Amino acid sequence: MLTSQFHFELPESLIAQVPTQQRDNSRLLVLNRTREVIEHRSFRDFPEFLRPGDLLIVNNSRVIPARLWAKKTGTTGRIEILLLEENQKNDWWAMLRPAKRVPIGGSIQLLDKSHVASGISATVLEKNDAGHRRLQFAGTKDIRHELDTFGEMPLPPYILRTSSQQLENDRERYQTVYSEPAGSVAAPTAGLHFTNELLSRLRTSGVAIAEVTLHVGPGTFTPVKTSNLKDHRMHEERYELPARTAALINETRGRGNRIIAVGTTSLRVLETVAAEQGPILKSTSGRTSIFIYPPHEFKIADALLTNFHLPESTLLMLVSAFAKPGSVEGRDLILRTYKEAIEQKYRFFSYGDAMLIF
User: Fold this and answer.
1) How far apart are CA 188 and CA 266, in angstroms?
2) Selection from 267, 329, 327 nearest residue 5 by Cα
3) 202 near 56, Cβ under 8 Å?
4) SS3 253
5) Closest by alpha carbon to 319, among 283, 257, 332, 213?
6) Distance (Å, rounded) from C-alpha 316 to C-alpha 338?
7) Is 344 helix (H, G, I), strand (E, B) or coil?
8) Which residues lie below 8 Å from residue 104, measured CB to CB, with a gap of 6+?
9) By CB neighbour count within 10 A (0-12 exposed, 13-18 middle, 19+ buried), where does 278 fall?
10) Structural domains in the chain?
11) Sequence-ordered alpha helix ranges (H) in 80-233
């Protein structure tokens, strides 16, 4: 399939810039993929579509305040640092912008929130094929411990911020209520709609909830640059499937109940592990670069809760595959559904509304 086949026009006014006042106040578009029927609901209605014995799989990764600001000594121009992955203490892969200002061996000074030099520096050790820089930090025992002081939440480029108060609000709202192990540089956004109260309602109704971890990388927002999908290479992301989750998945499938993946990240973990292990899952961890697009036969999940995604993005391609497993017809169904969502003025992308496909 071609990348251009996943294009659609989206009014800029529908790109959500802020979250809803309450997490579960978002809207919920429900797509019955077999009957090709759409319902327009509230996210608070989500429990109505689950049954006792169903299993909800969530990604518990926590977003780190990975955006830092720096400058070269003797200059005034700012350099943006987006931390990507820790190699070891004070040794990170990162994206720099503008990167050309800092050559290999060059050093920059981190700025505090008042844009004053902090006494912490970073030296560029090397550059990889993706254009990312490896940074060695000095002036701190561990830069990870400084992130709450100096870092900003790594919001995607389509979310604009004009005040420090907005950025402070994002520290809480750009996290799921169940986030725990820190490591993502983008939120698993389908989970942003849940409140602790709604999760409690699900448990009370007999729905089990289990966690996987996938530390979301910047590739979430990286456009597909190849014209043919088979030529695109996905970024790698670290994942973990705990023993409890594997056991619950096996038990749920054995009973004939449903498994609902919360977000494309959870779904990618399930598909990665199932491809490696077969139908019976066990605890594992590793790195995945799985790229899912039509046609694809899904091995674990029976339903998917997700947000509305960017045109020509790998996330839109995954959702299209899930809409009609084993077929290329899911693309047309999703694009028709997105057309109706646009007509109904649903809010798109990270802070936008939700979509349930079953």
Assistant:
1) 9
2) 329
3) yes
4) helix
5) 332
6) 10
7) coil
8) 124, 125, 126, 127
9) exposed
10) 3-63+172-357 (3.40.1780.10), 67-150 (2.40.10.240)
11) 147-150, 164-173, 196-204
pLDDT tens digits, residue range 98-130?
988 899 999 999 999 888 899 999 999 999 988
Average pLDDT value for residue range 176-192: 97
CA-atom Rg of the chain in angstroms: 21
Both tokens assigned to 350: 């990270």
Q: How far is CA 54 from CA 106, 235, 243, 254, 322, in A?
A: 54, 31, 18, 12, 19
Q: Which two tokens stand for residue 343?
A: 């007509």
| Cα–Cα distance measured from residue 85 to residue 20, given in angstroms and rounded to the nearest whole number | 30
Amino acid identity of residue 296, one-letter, is H
> Tokens 């729905």 identify what position?
207
Geometric angle at alpha carbon 352, from 350 and 354, rounded to 5°:
105
Q: Residue length, the chain?
A: 358
Residues 40-71: tens digit of each pLDDT: 999 999 999 999 999 999 999 999 999 999 99
DSSP 116-150: -EEEEEEEEEEE-TTS-EEEEEESSS-GGGGHHHH
> In degrees, to the nearest 5, what angle opens at C-alpha 350 toward C-alphas 97 and 157?
20
